[in-house]
Design a protein that fits this description.
The protein is of the alpha/beta class. It folds into two domains: 32 residues, no CATH class; 224 residues, 2-enoyl-CoA Hydratase, Chain A, domain 1 (Alpha-Beta Complex). It has a seven-stranded mixed beta sheet with strand order 3-4-5-6-7-8-9, sandwiched between helices. Strands 1-2 form a two-stranded antiparallel sheet. The N and C termini lie far apart (117 Å). The longest helix has 17 residues.
Length: 317
């Protein structure tokens, strides 16, 4: 046995072959395959700088980009019973919840917050697709009810960002019951005369599309977002026909009257400011940091200009 060959050389090779660059510095675009530097992707709100593909973004990062100064206050959501059906498939339901919480560092699949958007107070809710595919369970239902109550209490509009694979199978019928629960909660907004704006992101499917995601006063979608009840593959297998190009994508739904706008993520904040203030019958937002000009100062300046440049005398004509 050669000690140098069997121990020393592999040890030296392992030391000098270690990668100096962390693995998480680069992100591969799922659409075009381009390797993107993580800071570049983050600064671009998780939109590919090569093909403009809108990648997944967490609710917390979305809210930082949405609210003025990136500051917001989270709204408390009542936590339901963790495993009401004692459900178990390949894993126990509580184990899946704990794994998702560890992976996302969030309590559940929806985040609710309040803050200012273009100096307009709002309440916002956003689903996290990375948390068990953003599935709609009792917590998501409680979150939407909490968001609606907060909006009514503070007399603010509600903006909801949807992203879900549908209802949560581990909660069975209790998950499906969130469809009428959220519908009733959103009716409170309508009765209070408050705007409800929905931003549909990729993907929004299943019972979410059949309930609160399609009940807004205004529906906006991110480019190429999949928005449907049953997916295109299921439909093709059922009707045994080839579906049209881009079927159930945001642009297709816009052309067929199911959406009001398809807006790029980088332009979404300005779009929401404009629409929110319009629905509230408010004047357009002031873009600059300075306050709007004082009318008294404008009038005084006009008087000074007239005094400096008097009207010509009739004898001069």
């Amino acid at each position: 046995m050669n000690w140098i060959t069997n121990y020393v050389r592999p040890r030296i090779n392992s030391i000098f072959s270690r990668r100096e660059t962390p693995d998480n510095l680069w992100t591969k675009c799922p659409e075009c395959g381009t390797m993107l530097f993580h800071r570049e992707v983050s600064d671009n709100l998780n939109v590919c700088t090569n093909c403009d593909h809108h990648m997944h973004i967490t609710p917390r990062d979305r809210f930082i980009a949405l609210f003025d100064g990136g500051t917001f206050t989270e709204v408390a959501v009542t936590a339901p019973e963790p495993d009401p059906l004692n459900f178990r498939d390949q894993k126990r339901y509580p184990d899946r919840l704990r794994a998702a919480q560890k992976e996302t560092a969030e309590a559940e699949a929806m985040l609710v917050a309040r803050g200012d958007l273009g100096r307009t107070p709002i309440v916002a809710a956003a689903q996290d697709f990375s948390f068990m595919a953003g599935s709609m369970g009792m917590y998501v239902g409680n979150a939407i009810i909490a968001a609606a109550r907060e909006a009514v209490k503070l007399k603010r509009p509600l903006i909801l960002f949807s992203a879900a694979g549908g209802a949560r199978m581990q909660e069975g019928i209790l998950s499906l019951m969130q469809m009428p629960r959220t519908t009733v909660a959103l009716q409170m907004l309508k009765e209070a005369g408050l705007p409800y704006i929905v931003v549909l992101t990729h993907p929004t499917t299943g019972g979410v599309t059949a309930s609160y995601a399609m009940l807004g006063d205004v529906h906006i979608a991110e480019p190429n977002a999949l928005i449907c009840f049953a997916g295109p593959r299921v439909i093709e297998q059922t009707i045994r026909e080839k579906l049209p190009e881009g079927f159930q994508r945001a642009e297709y739904l816009l052309d067929h009257g199911m959406l009001d706008r398809v807006t790029h993520r980088l332009k979404m904040r300005d779009e929401l400011i404009t629409i929110t203030r319009m629905l509230l019958n408010l004047p357009p937002a002031v873009r600059a940091d300075l306050p709007p000009p004082d009318k008294t100062a404008e009038a005084a300046e006009a008087v000074l200009e007239e005094a400096a440049d008097p009207a010509p005398d009739a004898s001069d004509k």
